[in-house]
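Here's what a typical entry looks like (Alpha/beta fold hydrolase):
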Amino acid sequence: MKKIFHALIFVLFSVSAFSQPDTLSITLENVQYPYPVKFLNLTVEGQDFRMAYMDIIPAQSNGKSVVLFHGKNFGGYYWTDVIKALSVKGYRVIVPDQVGFGKSSKPFIHYSFQQLAKWNKQLLDTLGITKANILGHSMGGMLATRFALMYPEKVEKLFLEDPIGLEDYREFVPYVTTEEQYKTELKTTPESVKKYYQSSYFPQWKPDYDYLVKIGAGVAKSADFPRYAKVSAMTFTMIYEQPVVYEFKDLRVPVVLFIGKEDRTIVGKALLSKEQQSQHGQYQMLGKETAKKIPACKLIEFDGVGHIPHIQTPEQFIVSLLQNL
C-alpha cells in the first residue's frame, strides 16, 4: 500500500515546466492537489486575499466532518491518504491551506493564531458546518488548540498529531527578529530543507519523502520568493511569540494526542548547540507531560516514528485515527 500511495504522490505532485524544471510559484499553482481547490475571499488590514481549501464530500455521508490543519512547512497536499480514508468512511473532509501557506495568498500582515482560527471558523460557517472534528499536525496542532480554546462549541473532538509548542521556545531558543529570520529564510536550498527534515522529521530517510523537499524547496527558485520568505519569517515569529503550552489545561473538549516517539522537532533548532538540542524536542517525554496537562486526553504513541506519522506510517496512523473518531 505504501509503495502504491507514494507512487501516486509523485504523479500528483509532479510540477509543470515553469521558469526552471523544479521551480514552483509561491502559491503552488503548478502543484496539482489531490482534490479540487476552492477559495474563500478575505479582507484584513486593508488587503484583499484568498484562503485556499479542499472540500471533499463523501459518496455516502455519515453526517460528520473532519478538518485537517497542516504544519508550517507544508500545505494541504500532504494529507492525501488521510483524506481518502476518511472519505471512504463517510466523513466530509475540509482541508484549508492557511493564509500565508500553500495555495493561499501570502499577504504582509500581522500573523496570529487567533486570526487564523477566526478565518477557519469563517470557512466552516460559510460551508454550513456547525461542528467538526479538528486534526492539527505540527504548527497545525498549535492552531487547532487555539481554535478549540476560542470556539469549543465548534469542536466535536480535537486531534493533535505531533504538535509543536509543547515547550515554550522563548525559554531556551535565542530570540531573533523577523528581519533576521527573513535573511535566514532567503538562504533556503534543497540541501538545507532536506537536512532539516532528516534531523527532525524522519528517523530514517527514504526516497518516498523526496517530494516533500521538492515542494518545500521549489519555491526558493521563484522570482517572488522574497515575499514567501518574509511571510515564512513572520509565521516563525508567530510560533515563537504565541505559545499555547500554558493553556492546554483550559481545553474543554475531548483530546487525542498522537506522538511519534522519535520526533525531535524544535522551532529554531539551528540556533541551539548540539547539547541544547539534545535537551529539548524530546517527544517521547513531551507527549506524556502534555497528556497530563490536558483534561480528557488520550495519548497514542508510535514507536520508531518521527514528526509526521501520517506520512511515515500511514496505515498505522489511519487505523488509530478512525478508531478514535
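The chain has one domain: 2-324.

More examples are in the samples folder.
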